[in-house]
Structure formats: C-alpha cells, structure tokens
C-alpha cells in the first residue's frame, strides 16, 4: 500500500484544523484511521 501519511496530514491540516476543529481526539482519529480502506477496491488504483 502507498504511504499516505503526508497526504493524510495535509488533509487534516487543510480541511479539519483549518475549519476550526481542535479536539485532539478528533484530530488523532483523522490521522490514524486509514480512510482509503473504505474506498471500493476497484476504485483504489489512483490512490
């Protein structure tokens, strides 16, 4: 699987924290949960 830590961090910074979400539990969950696994396998080719 591709390393998604950089894009995941950027997403959290630019979409979550930038919108004023500051609860460390939410931020930690967003950084830890591999959301790309929720994408159907047939659509994962571009991830």
Automatic annotation (TrEMBL):
Q: Which organism is it from?
A: Edaphosphingomonas haloaromaticamans
What's the protein here called? Protein-L-isoaspartate O-methyltransferase
Spell out the InterPro entries in the cross-references. Answer: SAM-dependent_MTases_sf
């Amino acid at each position: 699987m591709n390393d998604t830590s950089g894009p995941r961090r950027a997403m959290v910074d630019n979409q979550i924290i930038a919108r004023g979400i500051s609860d460390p539990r939410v931020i930690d969950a967003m950084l830890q949960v591999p959301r790309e696994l929720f994408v159907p396998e047939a659509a994962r080719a571009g991830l």
